[in-house]
């Protein structure tokens, strides 16, 4: 936790530096340079073609084709979900929460995109609808659908608890689900689990110390976050053992509920000009040769 060292001598221009206006690192106009209205046309004619219910304290994986919509939906009670995305044809290309955060902000909603790891670095999915978009940011700086957390995991839990071996953290749930879906052994599957999109979770950083906090999720049965798949995906979703994450995670203490992944097909002719996302055009020479 970062605290001010009052014994440290401040430089002469300290006040000027601290008073400078911040500069947004990445120009949103360049990142949002795509036609969102085609997705609105596509969702008008979409039809549900597949679904999977994810039981509490477990995870499931589902294939979603490029050009399909999918939703993460709350079914019975207030519950958060930890989402992983993989390129269906290359598990090494995963959702890149850090870069997505740098491009779109700490929490995502409609029109934001979920970007993949380097070197492909392309949109894997575009968020097309969010029933929790009324929440915005609360007075603590909290909001929903964060990409600032990682996922609850048994290693951190072991560290914090002083030796507990809890096996149903999202990291373990996603590991088992991917191993089952792709017929991998557990160590191989674990190597592909990555930092998540915390669907429905309400989180932020404290204003004074910058510490990661969580609050009760505002999600209610029927709420959903909807995506459009820009490439062929494996979608992995864990119903977090923290339930609505009002007070705890990484244990069996919280009330937990199932979540659903719904898949919808649409008439791609309605998505005027849409194409599968192609890999980033950087040549990967890194200043060597050429
Ligand atoms: Zn979790």
How would you describe the overall organization of this protein?
It is built from seven helices and 13 strands. It has 290 residues and is of the alpha+beta class. The protein has one domain. Strand 4 and strand 5 form a beta hairpin. The protein is globular, with a radius of gyration of 20 Å. Zinc ion binds next to loops.
Please tag this protein with its features.
7 helices, alpha+beta, 6-stranded antiparallel beta sheet, 290 residues
Poorly predicted runs: none
The counted number of beta strands is: 13
Number of contiguous helices:
7
Q: What percent of residues are in strands?
A: 25-35%
| Count of folded domains | 1
Q: Please, what is the average pLDDT?
A: 95
State the helical fraction: 10-25%
Q: What class do helices, strands and sheet pairing give?
A: alpha+beta
Chart the SSEs and their pairings.
Elements: H1 14-19, H2 28-31, H3 37-44, E1 47-54, E2 59-64, E3 69-74, E4 81-87, E5 90-94, H4 97-104, E6 113-115, E7 123-130, E8 143-146, H5 154-161, H6 170-182, H7 186-191, E9 197-205, E10 212-215, E11 224-229, E12 233-239, E13 259-265
Antiparallel strand pairs: 1-13, 2-12, 3-11, 3-13, 4-5, 4-9, 4-12, 6-7, 7-11, 8-9, 9-10
Concise overview:
The protein has 7 helices and 13 strands.
């Amino acid at each position: 936790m970062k605290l001010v060292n009052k014994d440290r001598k401040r430089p002469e221009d300290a006040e000027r530096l601290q008073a400078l206006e911040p500069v947004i690192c990445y120009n949103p106009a360049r990142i949002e340079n795509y036609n969102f209205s085609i997705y609105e046309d596509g969702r008008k004619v979409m039809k549900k073609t597949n679904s999977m219910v994810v039981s509490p304290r477990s995870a499931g994986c589902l294939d979603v084709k490029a050009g399909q919509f999918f939703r993460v939906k709350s079914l019975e009670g207030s519950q958060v979900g930890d989402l992983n995305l993989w390129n269906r044809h290359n598990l090494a290309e995963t959702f890149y929460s850090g870069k997505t955060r740098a491009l779109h902000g700490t929490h995502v909603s409609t029109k934001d995109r979920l970007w993949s790891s380097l070197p492909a670095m392309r949109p894997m999915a575009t968020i097309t609808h969010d029933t929790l978009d009324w929440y915005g940011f609360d007075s603590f700086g909290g909001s929903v659908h964060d990409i600032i957390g990682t996922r609850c995991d048994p290693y951190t839990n072991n560290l914090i608890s002083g030796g507990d071996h809890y096996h149903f953290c999202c990291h373990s749930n996603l590991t088992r689900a991917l191993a089952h879906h792709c017929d991998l052994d557990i160590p191989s599957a674990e190597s592909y689990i990555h930092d998540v999109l915390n669907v429905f979770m309400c989180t932020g950083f404290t204003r004074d110390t910058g510490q990661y906090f969580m609050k009760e999720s505002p999600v209610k049965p029927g709420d959903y976050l909807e995506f459009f798949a820009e490439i062929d995906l494996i979608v992995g979703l864990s119903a977090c053992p923290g339930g609505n994450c009002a007070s705890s995670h990484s244990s069996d203490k919280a009330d937990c509920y199932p979540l659903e992944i719904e898949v919808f097909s649409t008439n791609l002719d309605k998505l005027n000009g849409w194409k599968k996302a192609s890999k980033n055009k950087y040549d990967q020479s890194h200043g060597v040769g050429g």
